[in-house]
Amino acid sequence: MSDFERKTPYEKWLDREGVPVIEVYGVKDLRQIALGEWKRLGCKGAYLQLKGLEGITGLFGFEIPPGKSLNPEKHLYEKVICVLSGEGRTEIEQDGRATISFEWHTGSLFSPPMNTRHRVINTGKEPALFMAVTTAPMIFDNFHNDDFIFNCDYAFTDRYDGQEGYFAQSDRRYLGSNHKQWILETNFIPDVRSIVIDPQELKGSGVFLTQFEISENTLIGHLAE
């Protein structure tokens, strides 16, 4: 069996994407990774395969030149984007609904609702750099079909239905019963560097940690100090 045949459907898709794939245990500074031309999205980018997360979570970085935008896309995997530098806006489209947009800047964190058409636009005078975490490995390894993943017409209106203010800043917090963890429900974090993080003494003295749930995703994350 060849090396290609041993690869998972997700890994084979990464090869077809035509950008660098970096296999590492960790990255000290995502702003320093080497990016390649990404024809599908019309930008520069690179995928990272973090050891221990293969088949579960995907990670990539990308850069948009000043005044440019990504090619629009939609897909059946969830994606959470963090802005490492730059400013701009994102447009969200869903059939039968008005297009909405919201602005972001360095430190912003957001997630286009699953299978909505979205376009990320750099409105600034400097390159905009991002990192994104996805559930793509599980989706590709389940369905094995690029066309279905990127061209399915189903609208997940239980997650997003064009509602006004969907990407407004929110501070809905509650203390989860499991491990007494604070949970923040929001669809947009303006700046992860300045958001309030809750004390979590169960994790250790002086530890602050807040879990965030965003865009009705199953892919959740946390902010920690």
**Sheet with most strands:** 8 strands, mixed
Number of helices: 4
The whole-number mean of residue pLDDT values reads 93
Strand content: 25-35%
Shape: globular
Structural class: mainly beta
The percent range for helix content is 10-25%
Number of strands: 15
Structural overview:
The chain is mainly beta and 225 residues long. Helix content is 12%, strand content 34%. It contains four helices and 15 strands. The strands form three sheets. Strands 1, 2, 3, 4, 5, 8, 10 and 13 form an eight-stranded mixed beta sheet that branches. Strand 6 (87-93) and strand 7 form a beta hairpin. Helix 2 (9-17) crosses helix 3. The chain is globular and about 50 Å long. The chain starts with a helix and ends with a strand.
Q: Quick gist of this model?
A:
By secondary structure, the chain is mainly beta.
What distinguishing features does this structure have?
225 residues, mainly beta, eight-stranded mixed β-sheet
Layout of secondary structure:
Layout: H1 3-6, H2 9-17, E1 21-24, E2 36-38, E3 43-50, E4 58-64, E5 79-85, E6 87-93, E7 100-105, E8 109-110, E9 117-122, E10 128-134, H3 136-143, H4 146-151, E11 172-175, E12 182-185, E13 188-189, E14 209-213, E15 221-224
Parallel strand pairs: 1-3, 12-14
Antiparallel strand pairs: 2-3, 3-4, 4-10, 5-8, 5-10, 6-7, 6-9, 8-13, 11-12, 14-15
